[in-house]
Amino acid sequence: MGGHGGLFLGFRHQDVFGACGSMSGGVDIRPFPDNWKMSNVLGKQSEYPDNWEKHTVMNQLHLLTPNSIKIIFDCGIEDFFYDVNVKLHNELLYRNIPHEFISRPGKHNWPYWNNAVKYQALFFADFFSSVQKDKNSSY
Description:
The chain has 139 residues and is of the alpha/beta class. It is built from 5 helices and 3 strands, in the order αβααβαβα. Strand 2, helix 4 (82-94) and strand 3 form a beta-alpha-beta unit.
């Protein structure tokens, strides 16, 4: 659940992180209550629904301040997380939260991620370059 964690931590700690990203992330964990042993941490969804509501990226959007954090996420159109990523993209658009969303052919596998990481690396390189330029111009 690295993609979920990357966005979850970024959204909740905009004071610490300037950018965050996800590749093929489970950005909404609620549709998957029986997967990845999440109930070992959150409790069974049927018994502890509030835990599941509080710990999904989709319910952290109210914390976002436009332009406070750079956001990138992507997902292959054949990935089982594709629908929740599109839902996140549409909700960010609705809330006028700037972000980069990339969707292209691919599944939840290494061939997809080996390609996707190139775009993520470029995004973060550009981010850190702009931070450095801002820092240098303030002197």
